[in-house]
Amino acid sequence: MSTTPTTLFDKVWDAHVVKKIEDGPDVFYIDRHFIHEVTSPVAFLGLKNRGVPVLFPEKTFATADHNTPTINQHLPVQDPLSANQLKALEDNSAKYGISHWGLNNPKNGIVHVVGPENGITQPGMTIVCGDSHTSTHGAFGAIAFGIGTSEVEMVLSSQCIMQPKPKKMRILIDGKLGKGVTPKDVALFIISQITASGATGYFVEYAGEVFEQMSMEGRMTVCNLSIEMGARGGMIAPDETTFAYLNGKEKAPKGAAWETALAYWKTLKTDADATFDKELHYHAADIEPQITYGTNPGLGTAITKNIPTAADLNEGESSYKKSLAYMGFAEGEQIIGKKVDYVFLGSCTNGRIEDFRAFSSIVKGRKKADNITAWLVPGSHIVESQIKEEGILDILTEAGFQLRQPGCSACLAMNDDKVPAGKYAVSTSNRNFEGRQGPGSRTLLASPYVAAAAAVTGVVTDPREFL
Ligand SMILES: CC(C)[C@H](C(=O)O)[C@@H](O)C(=O)O
Ligand code: SF4
Q1: Which CATH number belongs to the domain containing residue 42 in this structure?
Q2: Cβ of residue 149 lying under 6 Å from some atom of ligand 1
Q3: Nearest C-alpha to atom 4 of ligand 1 is from which residue?
Q4: Which pLDDT score is estimated for 316?
Q5: What does DSSP say about strands 60-63 and 17-19: parallel, antiparallel, or unpaired?
Q6: What's this model's pTM, rounded to 2 decimal places?
Q7: Is residue 379 part of a domain?
Q8: Are residues 250 and 207 in the same domain?
Q9: CA neighbours within 13 Å on the CB side: how many for 46?
Q10: What is the total count of domains within the chain?
Q11: Among residues of the chain, what percentage have pLDDT more than 90?
Q12: Chain mean pLDDT for the chain
């Protein structure tokens, strides 16, 4: 065994290199492969054309999420393109013997929600999916990243991909988070500090007290947003919180296999004195509830602050002005008090049970504002069941909200959940690009607390006044 101090990332990476290529990418072994309806059909077509089988069908897991409606899921899907994609996923999975959680399957939900909650995602694994937010699974101490459709085909046929090793960055945050400050705020804060391309070329390890104290749901939220700072992925060393979350999950190891796995998982941490290519250090006390005001996730601020000027930001002036013009905002304006039309609680960033608990803790005993259309979309059927079991649905109903059925929904508006042109949405998702939530839609990214505060007041509101 090597005595050189090693990072968590190197430990997991090096254990998966099948072959090193001189001056080229590594041939990299993949433990778990997730697929959804958008990026898999062309990969399966490639297999068919080459007459190649799926090498290890039991290592690939399919779920339908992007194109699925969030009401009346028992009825046939109306949109022909969506219906075709969903059918292709089902047929391809059946043809190659791949596990498939389609609409109405009790395990169905957003790929990055269902993988972890069923114990498929485990520490020390390499995990890929034809989807950028695959970084979510890094919360378990896995190396997880998004791949393109041609690589999906490669993984299906060989369980390997060609992958250059990224550089390593560690982001350390010490101290304790203040009232109303959530993992989403931590991630939006980091992105606002380093910009949406600040971690390009790196794989990030999040470390320090803030992440050690965080729940698995919170860690998933943070790792999910790694991609929005440009990183290849993000990870957090597994610990007792991770093991407790996984223990008893359907696909987690059981009995003696659990003990063996646990012994290995406990070795998965960065050694003291291991070095990174870049290190950033922040303090929890400096992080307030955040909100974005522009058209990339880096254009965010503490909710109590005013929208910065181009000079404050060091941003290219014309692109910044264009971004604010799209949003209908002006430099130097206060963000609190801005009118909101839509509230979206959901997505692979904030569609987990903890997010619904946070949202309901604010709307409890209050009423939805009349000007707000709210879409509350659980990340999976398991989350939906928990919402019902914990009495959260009753709180939401009492406050004038409806619960929808699981899927990506308004996060990218590939189904009917589209925010109309010019309207403002406070959204717990991860992208605020032009038109992301529907043509002409305007997105303000924020935490479930901020979303709830907007949902009951109708305007951007500091959630701390309700906590
Ligand atoms: C459709 C899919 C390829 C896409 C992604 O890769 O991220 C989507 O999930 C998104 O969030 O924009
Ligand atoms: S919820 Fe949004 S970010 Fe996540 S996979 Fe679906 S579309 Fe992509």
Answers
A1: 3.30.499.10
A2: no
A3: 131
A4: 76
A5: unpaired
A6: 0.98
A7: yes
A8: no
A9: 15
A10: 3
A11: 97
A12: 97
Mean pLDDT of 75-95: 97
Q: What atom of ligand 2 comes closest to residue 346's alpha carbon?
A: 1
Q: What is the pLDDT of residues 373-422, one digit of tens each?
A: 999 999 999 999 999 999 999 999 999 999 999 999 999 999 999 999 99
Does residue 309 fall inside a structural domain? no
Mutational test site, ligand 1, from 412, 414, 431, 433, max ligand atoms within 8 Å of CB? 412
How far is 278 from 2, CA to CA, in rounded Å? Answer: 23
CA 21/CA 392 separation, integer angstroms:
53
Q: How far apart are CA 362 and CA 447, in angstroms?
A: 12
Angle (CA) 354-336-300 rounded to 5° is: 65
Q: Which two three-digit tokens encode residue 202?
A: 């790196």
Q: Is the CB of 307 under 6 A from ligand 2?
A: no
User: Among 37, 38, 296, which residue has the most ligand 1 atoms within 8 Å of its CB, making it the best to mutate?
Assistant: 38
**E-state strands within 356-398:** 373-376
Chain centroid, CA 70 distance in Å: 19
State the DSSP string of 212-257: HSS-HHHHHHHHHGGGGGT-SEEE----HHHHHHHTT-TTS--HHH
- CATH code for the domain of 222: 3.40.1060.10
Structure tokens given for 38: 């958008």
Task: Report ipTM (2 d.p.).
Answer: 0.99
Minimal-distance CA residue to ligand 1 atom 1 = 38
- Domain assignment of residue 415, given as a range: 334-466
- Compute, in angstroms, the gap from residue 413 CA to the centroid of ligand 1: 11
Q: How far apart are CA 25 and CA 361, in angstroms?
A: 48
Q: Are 445 and 291 in contact (CB under 8 A)?
A: yes
Please enumerate in sequence order all residues whose Cβ is within 8 A of that of 457, keeping only pairs 6 or more positions apart, or say none. 369
Residue in 133, 224, 408, 434 to alter for ligand 1 test, most ligand atoms within 8 A of Cβ: 133
Cβ neighbours of 238 (radius 10 Å): 27
How far away, in angstroms, is 131 Cα from ligand 1 center? 5
Of 254, 286, 318, the residue at which a domain comes to its end is 286
Residues 192-244: pLDDT tens digits?
999 999 999 999 999 999 999 999 999 999 999 999 999 999 999 999 999 99
